[in-house]
Please model this.
Amino acid sequence: MPKTCIIGAGISGLALAWQLKRQGGDCTILEQADQVGGAMRSHREGAYLAEEGPNSILLNSPDIEDFLYSIPGLEERILEATTEANKRYIVRNGKTHAVPMGPLSAITTPLWSLKGKLRVLREPFVKAIDSNVEESVADYVRRRLGDELYQYAINPLVGGIYAGDPEKLSLRYGFPKLYALEQEHGGLIRGAIAKMRAVKTSPARKVRKRIISFQDGMGELPAQLAKALTEELQTGVSIQSIRQQNNQWAVVWNHQEVEVFDKLILTIPAHRVSKLPFETPLAAEFEFLSQIDYPPVSVLSLAYKQQDISHPLDGFGALVPECEKRKILGALFPSTLFANRAPEGEALLTVFVGGERQPELATAHIKQLKETVLPELESLLGVKGPPTFCHLKHWQQAIPQYKLGYERFLETMNRIESDHQGLHLAGNYRTGISVSYCIESALNFTR
Model:
């Protein structure tokens, strides 16, 4: 097995290291920070638990399930979301409406007008676009489903996933599975039917689809991985130099550690790669990665007495369409989803502000952010009274945006890897931003 150095102990780096270790590989992980997990962090304060990054994992793959179960001590820590987590809300005309979960509710919902519902019936007859044409998420949805479904379904969804602008995001690279439905099956409805038939007839092991977290939050995943990788992992590292020599990579860190590796895998955010101490020619090649946009996002967690909230909070959360002209992207209901997120008789909300939509509203100043958020919560969820708990995490560079033209970044990454043997770029800016995509990428790399 080749000797491997992984720089970055976020979920991408840790998952890859754990896979290599399971296969008997020789691996060293170097992390600049004193803690692991990257953006996957949980803040516990007494009975309150606030997520600073990802809030859950959608578990719908046997490979992901096997990976999680392989981590010592993790399986018994897994929490499944309540059945209420299946319910989602979208704001329209200042009120929250449940997203339809079936044909009957789709017909009767006040979320979409009769005209908007009838427009959806045309979807199977819309021709697929030429595969050589790159289309934005917004243009794709308007073409196939109409403007109303774009405004009051996909626009808020993209805001919730990417904190992004659907007019700028590439469908092909930002939502590759959605893109594939049209290219492979001719459309969304046809593709969904084909997928359901394939699942029913597939001999592959099936896994029960569910949303999960862990008893002490998502931060338990990287923490348990770090425990399993004690011998391989070093935190608080200062790297002095990285240079290629004879198709290997010499890395110097902490002013004394020097090792030569067969493979060098970079799993840190794209905007940090060019800051690594590579020799000048290669360092210059990495400058292009700093052009990938990472808009700021503020994550504000607030708890209230349940009696001070008029909304039932009976779901995953509520997303806000851009056309509603609100100051938040949406709010999740963590204490509804999972146990032990707030004391008895209280409810926890996680509110997202900023992103591509309104980057100027994202701030690290908690007083200023509360002045933005609290009136929105009062208007949309009927929240009154002072919060019993408050925690803020501000990400100045939050989520990579797979914008139109993203292919040029991917092609350049491929070229750099081809020109420099043993060098690999990995992370959520390469193969998808979700936790599942990061784990799948690690599994694919080691196959």
The two ends are 13 Å apart (CA to CA). The chain has a mean pLDDT of 95. The longest strand covers residues 297-305. The longest helix spans residues 366-381.
